[in-house]
Design goal:
about 260 residues; seven-stranded parallel beta sheet; two-stranded parallel ribbon; about 15% strand; globular; binds nicotinamide-adenine-dinucleotide
Length: about 260
């Protein structure tokens, strides 16, 4: 890109795990949109939790087929359950606030705990092991870094409660997907909702409905009755897209010093 005269890479996303700043080495500027609507992602995370818990995605298909049976669709009350939130930044805090409204007990883990937020929102920071051991629902809301890559793997899933609901709206590589398939086959995990997937760039945002899915792990994940996978759409609200567009244009103006 530098050799082709690119001066600015303006990413329209919050996460910046897709660029190696070290390799770019200041040869061109890199910008992102750090916050557009954390509400969009937090609200979508709650939608996923409710959907997989109450099997709404299954019920939708059933009733459209004229099948009005509710066998197998039993969920559990969120009231009084424990949610473990990994990453208590902008999205995590809004998610916690919404979950507290359902009277869910929230425990959290963050590399940089925010005690003020904990007091205001009514949650406790715990160690990762305690979070795994105590949570009925676990949501990943931290960035993808060297430390967090594959943090959800065979070992960490063994520490979780049987039947835990796992939700990932963070980044695909937070979860070792091959290990997740094994944990699902072992019936360790109650349900999984994924808005991101580690190999998503080969599939997400494209219509592949008339093609063979060559990714065996993705294909296997899609085959589980208790997995709900969406195509990186948590951010996709009118407010967020408007904010992304405005922020990107403002960045272009500022960084390339374009006059009004
Ligand atoms: N699915 C989507 O559409 C979508 C949209 C936007 C963002 N995201 C993802 O959500 C993530 C969180 O976004 P945000 O706006 O809340 O970011 P944020 O920077 O406000 O918060 C991230 C939090 O994670 C914490 N953290 C960093 N390293 C950690 C670690 N090793 N363990 C635990 N916590 C750690 C940080 O201290 C911070 O509190 C982004 O990094 C991005 O990957 C997804």
């Amino acid at each position: 890109m530098a050799e082709n005269g690119i001066k600015l890479l303006a990413m329209r996303c919050a996460g910046f795990n897709n660029v190696s700043l070290k390799d770019i080495h200041n040869r061109f500027k890199v910008a992102r949109v750090p916050a557009y609507s954390p509400h969009a992602i937090a609200e979508y995370t709650v939608a996923l939790i409710l959907a997989v818990n109450r099997k709404i995605h299954k019920a939708y298909v059933r009733t459209r087929e004229g099948n009005f049976s509710i066998n197998g669709l039993m969920g559990f009350d969120l009231n009084g359950k424990t949610a473990g939130i990994i990453g208590t930044g902008k999205i995590g805090q809004i998610l916690i606030k919404i979950l507290r409204g359902f009277n869910v007990k929230v425990i959290a883990y963050d590399l940089f705990p925010n005690q003020k937020a904990a007091e205001e929102l009514g949650f406790d920071y715990v160690s990762l092991d305690d979070l795994y051991a105590q949570s009925d629902i676990i949501s990943l809301n931290c960035p993808l870094t060297k430390e967090t890559q594959y943090m959800i793997n065979r070992k960490s899933m063994l520490k979780m409660k049987d039947g835990v609901i796992l939700v990932n709206t963070g980044r695909g590589m937070l979860i070792d997907s091959a290990d997740l398939v094994e944990a699902l086959k072992d019936k360790k995990i109650g349900a999984v909702a994924l808005d991101v997937y580690e190999e998503e760039e080969n599939y997400f945002f494209e219509d592949k409905s008339t093609q063979v899915i060559e990714d065996d792990i993705l294909g296997r994940l899609l085959s589980f009755y208790n997995v709900l996978l969406t195509s990186h759409q948590a951010y996709f609200t009118k407010e967020a897209v408007d904010a992304i567009t405005l922020a990107t244009l403002n960045l272009l103006k500022t960084l390339l010093k374009v006059k009004n």
